Each structure stands twice: as C-alpha cells, then as structure tokens.
Amino acid sequence: MHLSIRLAAIPLVCCSFFPVETRAQSEADTNRRVFETVVVTAQKRAQRINEVPASLTTVSTDDILASSGNDLRSVFEKIPGAAFIGLGFSGNNSVSLRGLGGLATFGPYDSVVGFTLDEQVIPLRSFDALLLDVDRIEILKGPQGTLYGRSAIGGAVNIVTRELTEDWNGQLSAEGGENGHLSIKGAGGGALSEALIGRAAVRYSKYDGDIANTLTKQDTNQAEELSARISGKWRFDDQGFLQLAYQIAREDLYPTGDLLLSAPNYPTAALSGLNRADRDSDRLTARFETDFSGTKLIALAAYEKTEIGNNFDLTDSILTPAAFGIPAEFTTDPSNDRSITNTDEKAVSIEVRLQSDTGSTIDWLVGASYIDFSFDRDLSRRSIIPNFNTDEVSSNSNETIGLFADITFSLSSRIRIGGGFRIARDELEYRGVTDFSGPLAAMPRFSEADSMSDDYLVGNLHLSYDLADAQLFARAARGYASGGYGEFAANALVGRPIDPFAPSTSNSIEIGIRGGKPLFSYHAAVFHNDVTDGQTYQFDAPTFSNVAENLDFRAYGIETELSTELTAWARIDLNMALLEADFDDVPASSLSGASDNNRVPLTPEFTLSARLSGAVAVTNIGPLQRATYSISITHISDRAADPANSTLLDDYTLIDLYLGAKLGNVEIYAFGSNISDEIAVLYGQNFGTADTPIPTANINRGRVLGFGIATEF
User: Fold this and answer.
1) CB of 90 within 8 A of CB of 279?
2) Which of 226, 368, 430, 473 fits as disulfide partner to 53, beta carbons 3.0 to 4.6 Å?
3) Strand, coil or helix: 497
4) Distance between CA 51 and CA 42 in Å, rounded?
C-alpha cells in the first residue's frame, strides 16, 4: 500500500466535513445543537418533514461525507431496510428497498426505486455517478408512482443539489489516503447581475485498486471519476425564473467481475488483461417556474446522452477451472477470452404541472409527464468456451406517457387526508441479431424482435394526525414496476428468444410516527407489501442461460430511526430495520428454482447503522476553535443470492472514523473508511448447481486511511 496526500485549490464542490451547528452558541451552552425543522421537497412541494404522510429518510451532506466511500453505496447502506446491489462495472448498480430488488440490475432502464436529480429523472445507468454539490438526499419508501412515475414500486430517491443564491459563497476540499485514494472537490457561485445567478461545481476522485491480479501483477478494482456542473438561474420577475444546468460525468473503472469465494487467497483475480469499464455522460436540464394568482406552473425537461464501454476477461483463471473444468493454462490468452461491449443510450424526460401554493388548506397538483429511453448496443465475445463466441447487435426502446394528480385536505388543525393517482402507458420494443463463430459457427444467425405495451393505474391514500410534537400517519398505495427486456440477447446462446419480464404490482400499507423535541427526534413505521409478478432473475450455469421470471412474494417489517443529543459533545444517530421477504404461491413450472417461503434475493433481513459524533469548542489553544469527531458502524445481514436460495451472500459490518480540527474557516481532518478492511459481498452468482454451488462475489472497496482539508468562504 502507499499513501497519496494532495491538496488542491480549484473550484470544486462539497459541503464541510464537520457536523454543522444549527443555532448560535452561548457561553453556557457551548456548541449544543438542536434538531432543526427540516424542509423537504420529496413530494414536489416544500414541506416540513413532519407533514409528509410517508416514511422519509433525509441524508445531509455531513452524513454523506462521514460515510465509507462518500458515494451512493455508502449512503444506502445506512438507510433502514435498504441494500446496495453492485455488479462492479459501469452503469449496472442498483438498490433494494423494503425487499424490492430482484431484477434491478438486469433491466437496462429501471430499478424498482425511482431516482431523480432535482426532481428530474435519472436513468438507471447514471444514478450511481459521483455525488456533486449535494445539499441533501431524500428517500421515500413504499410505492411512489403517483409523483415519481414508472417503476418507483419500492420507493423514490430525490437528490437535491445546493440552491443557487445571490450571496457569493464557495467550498473547497481535498483528501488523500491509502491505495492512491484521492478526492478533490469544490463549488462556488453567486449573483452575476441583478437578475442572473450562477454556480459551478467539480469533483475528481481516484483509487489505485486493492485486489491482486495474479496474471498481470496489477491490482484491480481501480477507479478514476470526474463530474462537473455549471448552472444558471435567471429571474425574469418576482414570481418566476428559468434555471439551466449542464453536467458531465466521466468514469474509468477496472473492476474484478466475479471472484471465486472458495479461492485460497480470496479475494484475488487471475485476469489475462485488466477489465475496463468506461462511462461518459452528458446531461442538460431546464426548470421553468412561475406563480400567478396563487397557482404555480412548473415545467421540467432533461436530456442525457451516455456512452458506456465494457471490456472484460471472460475466463478468469481461478473461476473458470472451478466452474467449467477447463485447465487454467488455456485461459491466459488476452486475445482469446474477451467480451467487448459498447452502448449508446439517450434519455429524454419532460414534466409539466400546476400546483397550489405551499400552506393552502387544500394542497393540490396536477400534471403530465413523458419519458423516452433508448439505446443501441454491440457486443463481441471471443473465448475458449464454445458458447461464448458471439457477435450481437441490439436496440431497446421505451416510451412512457402519464397523467397524474395529488391532493391533500386539512379537515381540521390536526387532521389531514389525501391521495393521488397516475395513469400511464408504456411502449417497449426490442430487436437483436446474434452471429456465432468458433465451434458454433455452423449455427445460423439468430434474429429476434419483440414489442409490448401496457396501460396502468397507480395511486395512494393517506391520513395523518398532528400530535404537536409528532405526527401519526397511515398510507395505502398501489405500486407498479414496468416490464420489458433485458440488455443482452441472453438466451440466443441456447437458440431461444429473450425472455421478457412482465410488469410487477404491489399493494402496500404502512403506519408510522415521526416527531421529536429540540434535542431528540425519531421515526418508526411498520409496513406490509403484497407483490404480484415480482421481477426476479436466475443465472443457470450448466446451460449458461438467464431466466427472467415473475413470482409473487410478500415483504413486511419494521423500521426505526433515532437521533438524540446526549451532551454538548455527543450525538447518537441510530437506524434499524427488521424485514421478512418470502416467495408465495410459486408455480411448479418455475424455472428459477424458487419455492414457497424462499427468501427474495438481495434482501437483508436486518440492517443497522449507528453513529456517534460531536464537536468540542476550544478557546485556549492558538487558532484552534473546535475539535470534531465521528464514528459510524453499519451492519448488513446475509442475503439470498438467487430465487433458488442456492447460496447466501455473507453479512458484513463496516466501521468509519473521522477526527477534525477547525482553525478559522479551515477544517483539517483524518479519516478511516472501512477501518477493519471488511470484505463486503455486494452481489454474487452461483456458477454451479443448487446441490453443488460454486458461489462468486462482487465486493466493496477495502480500508482507506487518510487526511484531508476543507474550507468554506
């Protein structure tokens, strides 16, 4: 290992790395913090968090920066009932909420959780890009199709960037650590004229890898990423504005792919050439807003173009002999065991809505939305494994148009009731051509084409009661996850057309309470989901085919969140969830190997995150003003790897540390991410049979210890 520490002063993003005090300190109450009334926009209007009649978790910039990895994976590991699903290569990661995950990483468009950036749809391939100039992340749980549209059956995530303000301000930070870890961030902006506000942000990160590759003698799991955004807001009068933003994301990864869990020196790889995954994304967004006669008109539009390239070694010299019985010496030719995939994806989203002003007795909104996702892909595979020698060209398109409405009535000063609906139509089309070479060259070209469409209705009803310091709420919702086609002509290898997966629906109910005092806040909810045609995936190693199957299941559990200020220098945040997600009424004809009461894949039954943090004011040590600290522990229980429950992904526990010192407007800090160097299995497959499994793993990043500096101005 080596230590790389660098400082930089370029305009980057980020919020401070220390807990932000929420009120002025007094001599008698040094740096004691109160819990502010949090204002959120998760339901497309500004609300106090206690007014939201649904389970909602907010993640501040301090929470993000204190997390291992400082990315969306680290964020979701700390959300009760959530799990990150990571295949390790570009654009194929996703999340699971409340037991809904399943097919999430294999459809080219949708997770079962809807993602938006400042309310505008993010395609699945882009959701895990670098967090850039973020103010907070809002996570709504349970079906959210009314306001978030397609495939938000498990929940919705709205990433909110820092607001453009007239007052000039900026942030700079840089940190370095083990294995070449380097992160440089900054942002700044303010009024450019009386009517125009601008802001720019950039973030760069690098990691040199920490998994040995025995053939090339180079470490894998490397990453280099860059994101940048420039935005402007033009106020044309006191009631309206137009905001434009252009954002780029550039990502170069060297992932490991599937690692053999039973390898003597696990985790280790034996690749004849390093895997490489590149993603270049350009995103342009516009937001128009005006207010007339107590009604707001809001129009949103986004265009994103993403180019993805994946160059992979198909025959890892450790995994292939165990899985296919092929001698390792036949798997070391870098030109004979490669898969090269290039994908061009375009995404267009438009939404127009009218809504009442915040705080009205009758709070309402109505609108329409349009989404157009499409991609073209070509794949070339060459391998000593006969079935791997193919060339594929395919296209996949998806259009969705929807109308939606939502309304809430204040029946009294304490009771509110409301609901909403969305009616929408999906149009999907898939075309693919597969040519065979090598030992299977005599097989004819395999062509396939298919299309499907669906009309659907989703909605919700909710009731809330104000207890002054808390809110009780009950919510019933119907969710929908779009059907469609996977990214690859997965079954052409066995002469069968792609298996489309049907839409999935969920009837869900939750009852919860949220509240608190100045130094104490809490949230708890119980929930139950009945899922029909849940989307699941099974990889069959003997035939090397993929099964996309729809199976019913139920998911139910309890979630709790607690934050309390024990003393002026010690705050505790504790999040926990207990979850049961099991298949139900599995037909005898099921090809996935699932059975009644089998666990739903990739769903942890227990998640826990705990954080102790604080700040101590210092008055007599030179320029030192304050010392800060944070220690966080995250635990994710084991998960079934597939519907057959042939293997389990091991549970894991991550520990992160932070220690900082404030000198004027500068924070100097030391940090430790995953200090126990825990190997966390984020995803895995079985390359054997149910009776004789050969499990593999895609894993997290190892320990990183380092130092950093941050400032605001």
Assistant:
1) yes
2) 473
3) coil
4) 11
Whether the link from the prior residue into 444 is cis, omega within 30° of 0, is: no
Q: Residue 209 and residue 206: Cα distance in Å, rounded?
A: 9
For 541-651, strand residue ranges (E) read 545-567, 570-583, 606-617, 624-636, 639-640, 648-649
3-state secondary structure of 494: helix
Please give the average per-residue pLDDT across 456-478, as a whole number.
95
Name residues whose C-beta falls within 8 Å of residue 339's C-beta, 6 or more positions apart in sequence: 310, 311, 312, 314, 379, 380, 381, 383, 388
- How is the beta sheet containing 268-269 ordered, strand by strand? 219-220, 211-213, 268-269
CA atoms within 13 A on the CB side of 289: 16
Task: Provide DSSP, 311-325.
Answer: EEES--TTHHHHHH-
Helices (H), 533-679: none
Radius of gyration of the chain (CA): 25
Neighbours of 361 (CB within 10 A): 10
Beta bridge partner(s), residue 285: 245, 302
Residue 583: CB atoms within 10 A of its CB come to 24
pLDDT at 103 over 60: no
- Beta-bridged to residue 435, according to DSSP, are 391
420 token code pair: 């909403």
- C-alpha 498/C-alpha 232 separation (Å) is 45
Q: Is the dihedral of CA 204, 210, 215, 216 positive or negative?
A: positive
Tokens 């929930």 — which residue? 527
Buried b (16+ CB within 10 A) or exposed e, 620-653: eeeeebbbbbbbbebbbbbbbbbbbbbbbbbbbe
Q: CA nearest 581: which of 566, 600, 561, 558?
A: 600
Please give the distance of CA 460 from its chain centroid, rounded to a whole number. Answer: 24
596 SS3 class: coil
Question: What is the pLDDT averaged over residues 484-502?
Answer: 77
Which residue bears the tokens 């057959």?
A: 644
For the cut 60, the answer to whether the pLDDT of residue 229 exceeds it is: yes
Residues in a beta bridge with 124? none
User: Shortest CA distance to 170 belongs to which of 600, 644, 632, 665?
Assistant: 665
Instruction: Count how many Cα atoms sit within 13 Å of the Cα of residue 634 in the half-sphere of its side chain.
Output: 27
- Quick one: tokens of 157? 């995530």
Asked if 565 and 520 count as a contact pair (C-beta separation under 8 A), the reply is: yes
- The answer to whether 659 touches 628, Cβ cutoff 8 Å, is yes
Q: What is the DSSP letter of 518?
A: T
Element (H, E) at 148: helix 145-148
* Angle at 669 (CA atoms; ends 663, 675), nearest 5 degrees: 165
Residues 67, 77: Cα–Cα separation, whole Å? 9
Q: Residue 389 and residue 42: Cα distance in Å, rounded?
A: 47
Q: Pick from 514, 503, 430: which is nearest to 464 by CA?
A: 514
Say which range, 229-238, 251-260, 278-287, has the weakest mean pLDDT: 251-260
User: How high is the mean pLDDT of the chain?
Assistant: 85
User: Would you state the torsion angle of the CA atoms of residues 366, 406, 151, 500, taken in this order, to the nearest 10 degrees?
Assistant: -70
